[in-house]
Each structure stands twice: as structure tokens, then as C-alpha cells.
Recover the amino acids of this structure.
């Protein structure tokens, strides 16, 4: 029996993304061989993620903290890819989401420098993020890093690490409609206000330079980043990586009453 073409489509489209964000090529080869239909996708990815959780636990019991952190971070990204296109099954989606968050929290706490979980007030709720500060810079500039439509802050780990190694603090956030924050705030076009609230929060800290802030976005986040820069004058630099110029062009046209009849 041939494999579900939806599985092949998603693997073909996303394999470079998987590899760039921490999926082991050998694991991906095994996953691709095991998944024969779309209904198996989330379960099989979660099983592979759980295997890395077990490796993390075994390493932690032997005080191998770096190994444990790496295994937890890998488990987190596997749980993310288990659920990120699987929203039609809310129970599997939520279970994988919760494990993604828990594994990243464990792994990122052991980084050098560690990632600090933060919440930022906005819109009567909170934006969730991770702040990492380079240890040898007293008040570093800040790169606010935005995920795309089906991404989340945990997927931005490698990008954030690149900034930190260059003396720039990284603040990866799930904005409205993204990752953890999607459970608190819906998707929005008001990204000047969103990043304005983030900069207000940064201004209350004495360990970062809130007057030297850049915003960086990938995919749909690459539309959000310039949208924020257009309406928030405190942003000093903006990077839009592979984003749409007009996201409305990819949405289905709105049907009129006559068309619906």
C-alpha cells in the first residue's frame, strides 16, 4: 500500500526546516519510514520525542547536564513538529504542546546562558517568551524574535543562540495567535502595539538596553516585524526573513451571499 500523499507533501515541504531547527537526520529517516498515513503523524513524532525525554532523564540522573539539556531541547522540537499541523485533533495537539513546553523549559534552564521564562502584559492577558542575555555584556541590546503562523518560540532556539553568541540578548516570544500565547490572545494585525508593550516591559529591566531594540521575524513573523517597525518608533532595526508581502493573498476569497446561495 502506498503512503498517504499528505505525509509525503509535508515531509517534502518541511524537511529543510526540520533539519535546520534541530531534528536529527537519522531520526527523521526513521520517522519518515514509520509514518504511512496522516493519522499516525502526531503519535509517531511524540514517541520519538519521548525517547529523547528518556535519554534526558537518564543523563540528568548521572549529572550529565549538557547531555540532558540537549536531549530535552530535541524532545521539545519533536513534540512541536508532532502537533504544529495537527490541529484537527485537539487532544493530541494539546498533549504534544504541553510536552513541548515542559521539555524546552527543562532544557533551556541548563543552557549557558540560561533562557529565562518571561510573561509580558498585553491586551488584558500575557505574552509568553524566553529571554537570554549574554553573560559578559552588562546591558546588551535586544533582538525580539518572532515566529511564523504555525511556528512558536521554541522553534527559534538556534536563531536566538546566534544572537546571544554575538553579544545581543534574545527575546523569543509567542505573540497573539502563536504558541502558548494563542491560548490567551487571538491573532492580530496590531503589531506596533504588541512590540510596544514588549519594549515597555524591557524598559523596566536594568539588565538589558531597551533603547537598542531590533525586531526579527520569519515566515508570517516577517510580515509582523516590519508592521511593528512601521508603528513603533522605538524599534531601531528590523529583519524580515522569507515573509509574505501580502498575507491576504494566500487566504481564500471572502464569499458573498449570492455566491453562497
Amino acid at each position: 500500500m502506498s503512503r498517504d500523499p499528505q505525509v509525503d507533501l509535508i515531509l517534502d515541504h518541511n524537511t529543510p526546516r526540520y533539519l535546520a531547527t534541530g531534528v536529527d537526520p537519522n531520526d527523521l529517516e526513521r520517522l519518515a519510514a514509520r509514518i504511512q498515513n496522516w493519522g499516525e503523524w502526531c503519535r509517531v513524532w511524540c514517541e520519538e520525542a519521548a525517547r529523547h525525554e528518556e535519554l534526558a532523564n537518564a543523563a540528568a540522573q548521572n549529572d550529565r547536564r549538557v547531555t540532558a539539556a540537549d536531549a530535552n531541547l530535541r524532545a521539545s522540537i519533536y513534540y512541536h513538529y508532532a502537533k504544529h499541523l495537527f490541529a484537527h485533533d485537539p487532544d493530541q495537539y494539546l498533549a504534544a504542546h504541553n510536552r513541548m513546553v515542559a521539555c524546552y523549559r527543562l532544557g533551556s534552564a541548563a543552557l549557558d546562558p540560561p533562557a529565562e521564562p518571561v510573561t509580558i502584559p498585553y491586551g488584558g492577558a500575557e505574552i509568553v517568551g524566553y529571554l537570554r542575555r549574554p553573560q559578559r555584556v552588562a546591558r546588551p541590546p535586544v533582538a525580539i524574535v518572532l515566529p511564523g503562523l504555525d511556528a512558536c518560540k521554541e522553534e527559534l532556539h538556534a536563531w536566538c543562540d546566534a544572537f546571544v553568541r554575538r553579544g545581543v540578548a534574545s527575546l523569543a516570544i509567542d505573540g497573539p495567535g502563536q504558541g502558548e500565547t494563542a491560548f490567551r490572545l487571538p491573532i492580530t494585525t496590531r503589531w506596533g502595539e504588541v512590540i510596544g508593550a514588549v519594549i515597555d516591559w524591557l524598559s523596566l529591566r536594568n539588565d538589558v538596553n531597551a533603547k537598542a531594540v531590533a525586531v526579527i521575524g520569519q515566515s508570517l513573523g516577517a510580515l509582523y516585524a516590519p508592521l511593528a517597525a512601521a508603528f513603533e518608533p522605538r524599534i531601531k532595526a528590523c529583519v524580515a526573513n522569507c515573509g509574505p508581502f501580502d498575507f491576504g493573498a494566500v487566504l481564500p476569497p471572502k464569499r458573498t451571499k449570492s455566491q453562497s446561495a
